[in-house]
Design a protein that fits this description.
14 strands, 29% helix, binds the ligand COc1ccc(C(=O)/C=C\Nc2cc(OC)c(C(=O)O)cc2Cl)cc1, three-stranded antiparallel sheet, seven-stranded antiparallel sheet, alpha+beta
Amino acid sequence: LSDGGDGFIQLNQYKLKDEIGKGSYGIVKLAYNESDEAHYAMKILSKRRLMKKAGFFRRPPPSRDGKTAVRPPTHPLERVYREIAILKKLDHPNVVRLVEVLDDPEEDNLYMAFELVEKGEVMEIPSNKTLSEDTAWKYFRDIILGIEYLHYQKIIHRDIKPSNLLLGDDDHIKIADFGVSNEFTGSDVYLTSTAGTPSFMAPEALKEEKENFSGKALDIWAMGITLYCFIYGKCPFEDDMPLSLHQKILKDPVIFPEQPEVSESLKDIILKMLDKNPETRITLPALKVHPWVTK
Ligand SMILES: COc1ccc(C(=O)/C=C\Nc2cc(OC)c(C(=O)O)cc2Cl)cc1
């Protein structure tokens, strides 16, 4: 890591430029690769921040029987290394491509160089700039193909939402951010943990009595919330109070605003994805043949 002499940070063959993304994960900077004269998206994670977030530096809670509580075995960076391992095996036009990882043990920062998806996040939420039904249709078809690929690769994304969908110059969508994704063996994973973004969480993940719930159905639910956001610029269930948001997700019906006018088949596919019962919720194969998708 050095000063590139022109005020930009130099990282190996990369010249780091403006910040183009920011989130709970850290930041993303535009990076210019001097060896191939191409631009990349450099995701920068602080290892210390990740350790702190995982409670790595927290004093272990006093245990009643005088012995110190056993610390969970997972090393906090293990999550990042798992994300990297997942990303390295993914290769699909609708999934971001990890090009390389720069991890200097002496350095606090960990750098992940991704192929640049030129236009960035497809949409901010809330937003008054909503997508037309036709544009939403184009993007949703890409999301279906991307999620189909991930589920085929036995990966549940668990954080599908507009800000994790990047738009390229070719007007195609790439799915990003595998920070909370789960890998599974077998035909599906049965989870009990809640992860992801509250407004996009499925009802079965919010129930008190936590029985196991299917991972794949969580992504389908989040795809439904995302499609609703494309059209209306806001989520169907919103509340500043987390517990009231949970109740709305668990109990409230989906309301479609009068404007913008949308087709009955679009409303139908959204309702089938936002079925509160994961057992009867539409599956990915059924989505692919839904009239709104195949029109
Ligand atoms: C205006 O132009 C812009 C062009 C590109 C961007 C951009 O790329 C933003 C975020 N990027 C990413 C984030 C990720 O996670 C949170 C991951 C991942 O971990 O999978 C990968 C990428 Cl690439 C922004 C603005």
